[in-house]
Here is the input.
Amino acid sequence: FFFSVTKLLHVSTVSVCPHCLMLAFVQLIKGLRFFSMEAQGPASKRVKKGLVIGTHDGCFHADEALAIAMLQSLPQYKDSSVVRTRKSELLKECDIVVDVGAEYDPKTNRYDHHQRSFTSTMHSIDTRKPYKTKLSSAGLVYAHFGREVISVLAEIPKDDNRLETLYDKMYTTHVEEFDGIDNGISVSDGTMRYSINSTISSRVNQLVPAWNCENPDYDGQFKKAVELVKQEFVTKLLHLKTVWLPARDIVKSAIVSRFQIDKSGEIIELKTSCPWKSHLYDVENEVEDNVNIKYVLYPDSSGNFRVQCVSVNESSFTNRKSLPPPWHGVRDDNLSKLSGIEGCIFVHANGFIGGNKTREGALQMARAGLQFNST
Here is the structure.
């Protein structure tokens, strides 16, 4: 420990070699940690503090920022220091290393994905999971620490059934995006109709010092990136816990009782408006085979009722069956006369949603949609 202090003082006042300074800094952190543990008394009362997380220096990306944000949310890494370097001798001194080092080994807490041999996915790590996007450092840390992170941040016991549901949903709706972008995996095949430039990764990239910045502060900007992705992660997680997850029982009840709404079994009614889309696809598969809901009825905030089409999948704008095309863009009395259904309010120009003043009217619109043959 005293050697580390002496070396740090020496390189700080005599030498300007950044490599030596960084090595002395890592050794000093470890020395201080050892010293503080020894000073606290018997081993049974010692608390390990100040673990060191290593990652690469220079330009940074969203995946290692999220990896570190997740780690630092855990009790064991709460007081950790972050060392940004590519020097192998410095990385060896770190307790855990992410996104650098060309090594993936959970036993030694090494989580890099850049080596040629790396092909790991959530599915290869846990065959119960179907997700096959190649992992980045964010995905690796999530695969091994994600459940603990969710338990801490969402304040959910580790044996709570909700934990695994949130673990899967956080990956598919949040973390997987980091993996795909960092590994250069397109979100879809074919030519994109337009570009999306407001993703978390894009916003992290905007924090990287510009090429023409005279005095770039990479470490300072990286701290901002870690805080940005942490806030986004926590906001998403708490939304899923408090808003998304409670809707699951509502959707499942509606699907189970669907034949009470219409004999086709292709219309469901929600007793209240809620985030139903992602639950619907999952619950359809859970309930039984060949469930194929076309329309969802629910009350809106003004006391009227909506009939909304179900898309072919959660991220698609293509409906399993749209409302009748002649209704598209028509409103009020004109729509009621055209459809023969009283109380119509509107049908969207794209035909994915409509409104009626009454529940019965909305149900009639859905039934008419089922019977309409566009050919």
Notes: The chain is about 45% helix and 10% strand. Residues 337 and 344 are 9 Å apart (CA to CA). Strands lie at 52-55, 81-84, 96-98, 104-105, 110-111, 267-269, 295-299, 305-309, 344-347, 353-356. Confidence is low (pLDDT under 50) at residues 1-15, 31-48.
